[in-house]
UniProtKB/TrEMBL annotation:
Transmembrane segments: none annotated. PANTHER family: HTH-TYPE TRANSCRIPTIONAL REGULATOR MJ1563-RELATED. InterPro entries: ArsR-like_HTH (IPR011991), HTH-GbsR_regulator (IPR052362), HTH_MarR-typ (IPR000835), MJ1563 (IPR026282), WH-like_DNA-bd_sf (IPR036388), WH_DNA-bd_sf (IPR036390). Gene3D superfamilies: Winged helix-like DNA-binding domain superfamily/Winged helix DNA-binding domain. Residues 22-80 form the HTH marR-type domain. Belongs to the GbsR family. This is HTH-type transcriptional regulator. It holds the Pfam family MarR_2. The keyword Transcription applies.
């Protein structure tokens, strides 16, 4: 499959960004290719287009499926599995945020709560106790906020994002 220069640059850049986000480059490139191409592709097409080994594509597709970012589909008269991703950026955003929250954020929050609940927590230096409790409060507040944001419709979420820093003038503490 031939990619335009724009498509090629997008796929390459998404792969580079994937590495920065802690995701294998090929995984990110496959997702980018499925997203930009907009139609289901089979593993051989993905491997040939990206110039990577078929086994690498298979492993990458499994990872994308585990994240809920890619699903299998079929074409009439073709026994191969085809793979597609959502074309809705808001759906993809929600899937990624939920997955990262579950895999990275929530375990830290649970650990902090567990540590603060231990009987021997009181033996920790007061400064360490304060830091752990404050971190737990922050993590719990951010977790609750994230869940609320993920419940919003894309239209409402976009409005909230556009408000951005202008919200600060309404909630900023008044100088004493």
């Amino acid at each position: 499959m031939e990619l335009t220069d724009i498509q090629q640059r997008f796929v390459i850049h998404w792969g580079e960004m994937g590495s920065a986000w802690g995701v294998n480059r090929t995984v990110a490139q496959i997702h980018a290719l499925l997203f930009i191409h907009g139609r289901p592709l089979h593993a051989e097409e993905l491997a040939a287009t990206l110039g990577v080994a078929r086994s690498n594509v298979s492993n990458s597709l499994k990872e994308l499926q585990n994240w809920g970012l890619v699903r299998v589909t079929h074409t009439l008269g073709d026994r191969r599995d085809y793979f597609e991703t959502s074309g809705d950026v808001w759906e993809l955003f929600r899937t990624i945020v939920r997955g990262r929250k579950e895999r990275e954020f929530d375990p830290t929050t649970r650990l902090l709560a567990e540590l603060a609940a231990r009987e021997d927590f009181a033996q920790e230096p007061p400064e360490a106790q304060d830091r752990l409790r404050e971190t737990l409060r922050l993590m719990q507040a951010l977790g609750a906020w994230t869940e609320e944001m993920l419940r919003l419709s894309p239209h409402t979420l976009e409005k909230v994002l556009r408000l951005g820093a202008s919200v600060q003038r309404f909630v900023r503490d008044k100088p004493d």
